[in-house]
Amino acid sequence: MTIEDNLIEILLVEDNPGDAELAREAFMECKVKNRIHVAEDGEEALDFLYRRGKFRDAVRPDVILLDLNMPRKNGREVLKEIKQDSNLCNIPVIILTSSEAQRDIDISYKLYANGYIVKSVDLENFFEVVRSIETFWLSTVKPPEDPESAPDEK
């Protein structure tokens, strides 16, 4: 969490502009102060996380909401890369996707996803899903520190 302003930094990786806007609206209703950063595909998500190109000043997210089915680099590939990187692996990654396929669920957890949530097509249900994310992941769970800013262990 950003110390200076107590904002929860959320990276939403979503290629559907309509779903990204719905998520923004739903999070605006939350009680927790948050800032949503949107990456439109897997490559852009990794650029954000590695602070490359137009994202060189990006903040470290406290939580990542990751769609599975995206162009250029899919969510499974992004999840695998995040969880294999010692500087990123402790960021909670929640799969937020339209896929209800058991295979996608199983693969996501094998790649160390922290949660798997199916997006609802019903607007009120979608808002309820976002509220549940806010309640658990943004209000209850304490995020890890950025390894680069954490004090050295002695």
Structural features, described:
By secondary structure, the chain is of the alpha/beta class. The protein has helices spanning 17-28, 42-49, 75-84, 102-110, 123-140, and strands at 8-13, 34-39, 63-66, 93-97, 115-118. The protein has one domain: Response regulator (Rossmann fold), CATH 3.40.50. It has five helices and five strands. The chain has a five-stranded parallel beta sheet, sandwiched between helices. Helix 1 (17-28) packs across helix 5 and helix 2 (42-49) runs parallel beside helix 3. 27% of the residues are buried. The mean pLDDT is 84.
Structural class: alpha/beta
CATH class: Alpha Beta
With strands numbered from the N-terminus, the spatial order across the biggest sheet is 2-1-3-4-5
What is the average of the pLDDT values? 84
What does the oligomeric state look like here?
single chain
Radius of gyration, rounded?
15 Å
**Unreliable runs:** none
What's the structural blueprint in terms of helices and strands?
Elements: E1 8-13, H1 17-28, E2 34-39, H2 42-49, E3 63-66, H3 75-84, E4 93-97, H4 102-110, E5 115-118, H5 123-140
Parallel strand pairs: 1-2, 1-3, 3-4, 4-5
What are the salient characteristics of this protein?
154 residues, alpha/beta, Rossmann fold, five-stranded parallel beta sheet, 5 helices, 37% helix, 16% strand
Task: Write a brief structural summary.
With 154 residues, this protein is α/β, with parallel strands linked by helices. It contains five helices and five strands, in the order E-H-E-H-E-H-E-H-E-H. It has a five-stranded parallel sheet, with helices on both faces.
